[in-house]
Amino acid sequence: MYRSDIGIVSAGTGLPGDAIGTAALAERFGFGAPWEHWVNTFIGTTSRHLAIDLETGEVRATLADLGEEAGRSALESAGLEPGDIDLVVMGTATPDLLMPATVNVIADRLGIDGVPSFQLQSGCSGAVQAMDVASGLLATGQYRTALVLGGDVCAKHVVPDADFSRLPPAELVNLVLFGDGAGAVVLRREPEPGAVLLRGLFTRLVGLGRDPGQTLAWFGANRTFDQPAATEDYKAIEERVPVMAVEVLKELLENLEWSEADLRYLLPPQLSGRMSALIGERLAVPHAQQITRVNEIGNCGNGLVFFQLERALQAMGPGDRAVGVAIESSKWIKSGFALERT
């Protein structure tokens, strides 16, 4: 486990368009009230933001657009200029293109140049993996300030004129689970007094011999594929993610010699509104305030941790401690981080 005193100076986020409620989805795709009730009861996500127009299929925002918005907001909140950034790292499962890397497009738009840049291909733990890479490089002393980005645009895998009544549940659930969004944080070695410090952080692959819980295909222009663009083994995720989340929390607390009673805030995994609530109960830290966003903005993959961090930075007072957990279910990666405001 990596331990550090790297500071989280600021956070920023970006969302496309207005929130789209479940009732609007049901009406658009010809589902009735029973389907809307099923979503509200068993999924628990009431709204999401999508980067495409569901009526026309027109792209309203790219991942680079959302990442630029989030990165610019984080820089402004930190009072920094592009030239102050020494390092850029991004985590995403849905880059705009294979090349150029989306992280480099965002850096270019922000005016960042002449620095190392990295893009990590990963599911929902990619945000933590990106912070892990950036923190490790900052700890070497070679760099002082890093911009860390994460986000996903899943709506590009939706075909607006498809017959959704024919889709199996493993594909249909993605229509209501996911939204689009991006986030960013500025990390700094030797931050100003009073900063929120990244006290502990780790990511670990634990998928040996396990079938994928989620798949996301890349469809090239010159080939056809028989498999669907995206699938979700929701039952496997519902079974395994709470268990893995408890393991992450336990490992973080033991390594830092913290107890559950020390925690003021908890940032649980964000698959859906219902799952976040179930995982929160399983984590059994009743006195810690949970910071969740998925029920209102949908599961925007690698963006969600940053939306949680944005709220946490606003809420944490002197001495407050928090733990965040993110689980990647495509090939099962568990990750977590611990925060403390000095």
TrEMBL record:
**GO annotation (BP), single:** fatty acid biosynthetic process
Q: Where is the Beta-ketoacyl-[acyl-carrier-protein] synthase III C-terminal domain?
A: 253-326
Q: Which domain of life is it from?
A: Bacteria
Matching entries from SUPFAM superfamilies are given as:
Thiolase-like (SSF53901)
Q: Which GO terms describe its molecular function?
A: 3-oxoacyl-[acyl-carrier-protein] synthase activity
Q: Which Pfam families does its entry note?
A: ACP_syn_III, ACP_syn_III_C
Q: Tell me which UniProt keywords the record has, alphabetically.
A: Acyltransferase, Transferase
Beta-ketoacyl-[acyl-carrier-protein] synthase III N-terminal domain span: 118-195
Q: What is this protein called?
A: 3-oxoacyl-ACP synthase
Q: Which organism is it from?
A: Actinomadura verrucosospora
